[in-house]
UniProtKB/TrEMBL annotation, chain A:
<dbReference type="InterPro" id="IPR051408">
    <property type="entry name" value="Phosphate_transprt_permease"/>
</dbReference>
<feature type="transmembrane region" description="Helical">
    <location>
        <begin position="370"/>
        <end position="392"/>
    </location>
</feature>
<keyword id="KW-0813">Transport</keyword>
<dbReference type="InterPro" id="IPR000515">
    <property type="entry name" value="MetI-like"/>
</dbReference>
<feature type="transmembrane region" description="Helical">
    <location>
        <begin position="167"/>
        <end position="193"/>
    </location>
</feature>
<feature type="transmembrane region" description="Helical">
    <location>
        <begin position="244"/>
        <end position="265"/>
    </location>
</feature>
<protein>
    <recommendedName>
        <fullName>Phosphate transport system permease protein PstA</fullName>
    </recommendedName>
</protein>
<feature type="transmembrane region" description="Helical">
    <location>
        <begin position="101"/>
        <end position="123"/>
    </location>
</feature>
<dbReference type="InterPro" id="IPR005672">
    <property type="entry name" value="Phosphate_PstA"/>
</dbReference>
UniProtKB/TrEMBL annotation, chain B:
<comment type="similarity">
    <text>Belongs to the binding-protein-dependent transport system permease family. CysTW subfamily.</text>
</comment>
<feature type="transmembrane region" description="Helical">
    <location>
        <begin position="44"/>
        <end position="66"/>
    </location>
</feature>
<feature type="transmembrane region" description="Helical">
    <location>
        <begin position="227"/>
        <end position="249"/>
    </location>
</feature>
<feature type="transmembrane region" description="Helical">
    <location>
        <begin position="128"/>
        <end position="146"/>
    </location>
</feature>
<feature type="domain" description="ABC transmembrane type-1">
    <location>
        <begin position="91"/>
        <end position="318"/>
    </location>
</feature>
<feature type="transmembrane region" description="Helical">
    <location>
        <begin position="183"/>
        <end position="207"/>
    </location>
</feature>
<dbReference type="InterPro" id="IPR051124">
    <property type="entry name" value="Phosphate_Transport_Permease"/>
</dbReference>
<protein>
    <recommendedName>
        <fullName>Phosphate transport system permease protein</fullName>
    </recommendedName>
</protein>
<dbReference type="GO" id="GO:0005315">
    <property type="term" value="F:phosphate transmembrane transporter activity"/>
</dbReference>
Length: 402, 332
């Protein structure tokens, strides 16, 4: 009743003007299409405001002392303020607030992109010279010491040394960690999805997987070192032929498994849960045993997701530094034996080259090697991420025919 | 997940005797190996699940067992106070760095999540989300190198300015670092590292906002921002908090970025001069040099246990908030 008498006008929504009660019988002029344009600013306003802000920002930063960062910051602030004022004057307060927050959201996105661009650009630009050095991928650090680095820096001789031993170490440790984690993780998620019926044990496992997801990587490393030391102590007292020191590749692999298992459980569980129940029931109806149903129906349906999840888990642990640093140590030469002697992984190599340059006074060659190794590491990790994405899309179960 | 019990092969052997089928059935007569396979398979699955429980308890047991040496000495008995004196500055330093990271990352992360869920063109939002996930893919040691060589030096003039103009605040007192390797730089790097975590949690929850709530708000004349304030944020509050807590958990345990960026020192209130240290950095820098079985090693393992407990509490709180929220919201 009141609704028919009182026309809803834009002015009411505005909250700025009094609702024209006397015109209630006639259609309000504000409701005509032409009037809709009154409460908006033309589309090019933002561009003009941005240009003004950029010019003003340049002028202001020139007054203080010009540099690029200051100019950009001033431009952003000025743009926010001017854009708010223009909308406030031209439209109304509520639209102006809306505009300001929208601008802030766009700004947040730009701010988030800055470090990504900066990291990738800095690693690429500083890493390429080292990567192009001949023999960087094919040699290790044996025979590279302070004097060779000093000669490289002072007399311009080529930088010696490479990352072969680190690549070998990373490969061995990661592969071992994967072959420990994937069976345990996969079978656990099969238990959770196919066998558990919401009992205490399955709830406990879910909780513990949550807890494991949050374990700091350095704590996992400490666990690996402590556990292996204890294990070797027991083995030694039993008279078994065990290594005397716990610092070796397999210790690092165990520490990494602690980090990797929860990731594998999480992703595979999710993938197994989305397998339609009709498929399982159809299989049971044909008289197929449960374990064969799981192996032949459930897992093949979910295999693309599982493979993608495992690849992502590998990408996560291959970049881990801290657990390997405290469990496998670092050496300068190749070590193919997981069960004997120290072993270098690629992230640890980067860390050591930065933290303890081969020649403390002439650190440029060390830094060059470290940046090149960082570039290699980023390429590996990004490649793994891309592979996971490709696996997930290419080998996804067919949607048609069901 | 309701499958009829009849289609289940028995998990427990006790059920077996009750389900004897006629020997003439050709589907089961030749299937004696299948029964065995079922038992073995379910047993292996159960074992794998139990292995996780055992592993985690081993983590707790080994860490506790090995850290005894830090709080107990043969001659002097309990030396808890000595350990607390050692642990206190590290705990505070870890909290400072993580808090800086949270304060910087949270607004940006919420903004980016809103951008992806409500502002970006729908066709682009997926690839934008992937772009932000790339931030999470970069290894922490690379972030450390970046913070040490690029971000730190870039922040030196900022520190100088802060010291000159705001030096009366204790946070900006003290000689500003000339290399930029300060706790504040470490906090910024940590903020960049936890940004994708908070963003992805917030994004998930923003997308789940009931469309009807949003449309109702818009239909009543709300602007887009008012709609977000009235429909999206109230719905997502618990999700944002839990995302922030998960980010905090990651920031607390992050090692390499801090170990590389920060030049460690004594605990101090100043954010812009070198000093302070965090638990993970202390372990990473000290453990390789500590002789096995020594008191120093026990001390480092004990401080690792402290870190484990802190992150455990933070992560559990986050999960608890999410689960409690799930019960009311009707999401999922």
């Amino acid at each position: 009743m009141t609704q028919t008498q009182q026309q809803p006008t834009l002015a009411v929504v505005d909250g700025t003007a009094e609702p024209p009660r006397q015109q209630a019988r006639e259609p309000s002029p504000l409701l005509r299409p032409a009037s809709l344009a009154q409460n908006r600013v033309p589309w090019w306003t933002s561009l003009v405001v941005l240009a003004i802000a950029a010019v003003l920002g340049a002028a202001l930063s020139a007054l203080i002392s010009f540099n690029l960062a200051l100019w950009l910051v001033l431009t952003a602030v000025l743009y926010l303020v001017i854009s708010y004022c223009v909308t406030r004057v031209k439209v109304n307060r509520r639209q102006a607030t809306d505009k300001m927050w929208a601008n802030l959201v766009y700004l947040a996105f730009v701010i988030a992109l800055l470090p990504l661009v900066s990291v990738i650009w800095s690693v690429t630009s500083t890493g390429i010279p080292g990567l192009l050095e001949s023999g960087f991928l094919a040699s290790d650090m044996q025979g590279v010491d302070g004097t060779t680095d000093q000669r490289s820096q002072e007399e311009g001789e080529p930088v010696l040394g490479g990352i072969r031993h680190a690549l070998v170490g990373s490969l061995l440790i990661t592969l071992t960690a994967t072959s420990i984690s994937v069976p345990i993780g996969l079978m656990t998620s099969i238990y959770l999805v196919e066998y558990a019926r919401g009992g205490t044990l399955s709830r406990a496992i879910t909780l513990f997987v949550d807890v494991m997801t949050g374990i700091p990587s350095i704590v996992a490393g400490l666990f690996g070192a402590a556990a292996m030391a204890w294990f070797l102590g027991v083995g030694n007292s039993l008279g078994l032929p065990v290594p005397t020191r716990s610092t070796m590749g397999i210790t690092a692999a165990i520490a990494l498994s602690v980090l990797m298992i929860p990731v594998v459980v999480r992703t595979t569980e999710e993938m197994l849960r989305v397998v339609p129940n009709e498929l399982r029931e159809a299989s049971y109806a044909l008289g197929v045993r449960k374990w064969r149903t799981i192996l032949k129906v459930v897992i093949p349906t979910a295999i693309s997701g599982i493979a993608a999840g495992v690849t992502l888990a590998i990408a996560r642990v291959i970049g881990e530094t801290a657990p390997i640093l405290v469990t496998a140590g670092f050496v300068v030469s190749n070590n193919w034996n997981l069960f004997q002697g120290w072993m270098t992984a690629l992230p640890v190599y980067i860390f050591r080259q930065f933290q303890n340059p081969t020649s403390p006074n002439f650190s440029d060659p060390s830094h060059q090697r470290a940046w090149a190794a960082a570039l290699v590491l980023i390429i590996i990790v990004m490649g793994l991420n891309l592979t996971a994405r490709l696996i997930a899309t290419i080998f996804a179960p067919k949607k048609t025919g069901r | 997940m309701t499958r009829s019990g009849a289609s289940h092969p028995p998990v427990k052997p006790t059920d077996q005797s009750g389900r004897q089928e006629p020997a003439t059935n050709p589907l089961t007569t030749s299937d004696s190996g299948g029964v065995m396979g079922d038992r073995v398979f379910s047993g292996v699955a159960l074992l794998a699940g139990a292995a996780i429980l055992v592993t985690l308890s081993f983590v707790a047991i080994f860490l506790s067992f090995n850290s005894v040496g830090a709080v107990y000495r043969e001659e002097e008995g309990l030396i808890l106070e000595q350990f607390l004196e050692y642990a206190y500055p590290l705990v505070v330093g870890t909290l400072i760095a993580s808090l800086i990271a949270l304060v910087l990352a949270t607004p940006v992360a919420v903004g980016v999540a809103l951008f992806v869920s409500h502002f970006a063109p729908p066709r682009l939002s997926k690839s934008i989300g992937y772009l932000i996930d790339l931030l999470a893919a970069i290894p922490s040691v690379v972030y450390g190198a970046w913070g040490m060589s690029f971000l730190g030096p870039a922040l030196v003039p900022v520190y100088g300015w802060l010291h000159q103009n705001l030096g009366f605040i204790p946070l900006f007192a003290g000689a500003p670092s000339q290399t930029g390797r300060t706790i504040f730089t470490a906090g910024v790097v940590l903020g960049v590292m936890i940004l994708p975590i908070i963003t992805s949690v917030c994004r998930e929850i923003f997308i789940q906002t009931p469309k009807l709530h949003e449309e109702a708000a818009l239909a009543l004349g709300a602007t887009r921002w008012e709609m977000i304030m009235m429909a999206v944020f109230p719905f997502a509050r618990a999700g944002i908090i839990s995302g922030v807590m998960l980010g905090l958990g990651r920031a607390l345990g992050e090692t390499m970025a801090v170990a590389l960026v920060l030049s460690p020192g004594l605990l101090s209130a100043s954010l812009i001069s070198s000093g302070n240290s965090t638990i993970p950095a202390e372990i990473a820098l000290g453990f390789p040099e500590a002789p096995p079985g020594s008191e120093r090693q026990a001390q480092l393992i004990a401080i690792g246990l402290v870190l484990f407990i802190i992150t455990l509490i933070v992560n559990m709180t986050a999960r608890w908030i999410v689960n409690r929220h799930k019960e009311f919201s009707g999401a999922n």
